[in-house]
Fold this sequence. Notes:
Layout: H1 3-18, H2 24-69, H3 71-122
Amino acid sequence: MGQESCRETSASLHSLCTTGLCSSAAMKLSIIATVVVLVLAHGAFADELEDLLKDIQAKMSKDFREIVDNPEVQNQAKVFLEEKKGQLEPAVEQIQPHVDPFIEKVQTFFDKLRYELAKTSKK
């Protein structure tokens, strides 16, 4: 429903009131007409919004695919990962001697726990 229809509805309601026919029925008609106009406007807005969101999603998917498929971006990602790998390797070398004893202690703990659980379940 366009602005033209809204104006016509408003004008006809105004003429009802100015001719002295502004009764309870005219007020009800006014409220019903207003609700109908709002519902139709809301529906049109919702459809436009849904179409807009679909367009945005399609554009974002296309743009993302173009970025991911871009050889320059792929090269930058590889360089970035290699730099980070180079930064992490010395840290891993420092941590590794501490990890092995920790793993042995955890394994020993679980072995003892299994043993105790086995003893308890046999009783």
